[in-house]
Amino acid sequence: MSALHLNDFSASAREAIASAREAVAALHAELPRNDLVAWTAGNVSARVDLDEGAEQAAAHASENVSGDISGLFVIKPSGVSYDELNAANMVVCTLDGVKVDDDTSIGLSPSSDTAAHAYVYRHMRHVGGVVHTHSSYATSWAARGEAIPCVLTMMADEFGGDIPVGPFALIGDDSIGRGIVETLRASRSKAVLMDRHGPFTIGADAKEAVKAAVLCEEVARTVHFARAYGEPQRIAQHQIDALYARYQNVYGQKDNT
C-alpha cells in the first residue's frame, strides 16, 4: 500500500493544511490555560476540507491508498508536552484516521483519540472541530455517568439544554466516536460526557469546539457547587428554547456587509 504524502496534494490544499496546523497548535494552548488538562492529556483537532481537484490529485498520486480522502483533519501528536507543540508537529490524518506523511512530523503518531475524532468528522459533516479534555468538574460528572442538568441560562445559550452522557467505550478504535455521534445527534448540545471517561465537544470550527470545552467545565463546576446547597431548579423547556434561539441568532457582533 502506498503512503499518502503531503506533497501529493495541490498547493491550495497544502496552504489550507498549513493554516489549520497553525490554528490547532495555537488553540492547544487554551487547554492548560483554562485548566482543562493535566500533563499531555487532551486534544484539539480541525477539519480541512478539500476541493474536488485536490482529492483527485491525491488519489492519482497514491492510487493504492485505501480509505476516505474526501477531507483531512489536523490533530496533536500523542504524548507530546503542551510546551513542545507547534504547527510543524501537528499531525495530518485522513478521515479514516490514517496519518499523512510529511517532512516535519516524521516519527510522530497522532493522538490516541484520533479514531474518535475521525468518526465524528465522517458522520457529522457540519462539525469542523473536535476537542477532548479531562477537565476536573466535567469529568467528575462523567465518572458518575450523570448528565449536567440545564439549570443556568449559560447552558441554555451554549448547549441548548442538558449536557448528555454518552456510553462507556474503550479507547483505541471508533467506539468512542460512535458514542459521541449517537449521543449528540439526539441533542442540541455541543458537549457530551463520555461515561467514566470525560468530555468531548464539537463546533463549526476548532475555536468553537474549544469554547464549548471551556464553558462545559464552567457550568459543570457551577452546578456542582450549587448542589452543595440544595437541588437547583431546571429551566423550563420553552425558556431553554427561547434562550438558545436568541443566543444562536442574535447574540454577538454580526457581519452586516
UniProtKB/TrEMBL annotation:
Residues 22-224 form the Class II aldolase/adducin N-terminal domain. One of its GO terms (biological process) is pentose catabolic process. Keywords: Metal-binding, Zinc. Its EC number is 5.1.3.4. Signal peptide: none annotated. It catalyses: L-ribulose 5-phosphate = D-xylulose 5-phosphate. SMART domains: Aldolase_II (SM01007). Pfam families: Aldolase_II. PANTHER family: FUCULOSE PHOSPHATE ALDOLASE (PTHR22789), L-RIBULOSE-5-PHOSPHATE 4-EPIMERASE SGBE (PTHR22789:SF8). This is L-ribulose-5-phosphate 4-epimerase. It comes from Nesterenkonia aurantiaca. The lineage of its organism: Bacteria, Bacillati, Actinomycetota, Actinomycetes, Micrococcales.
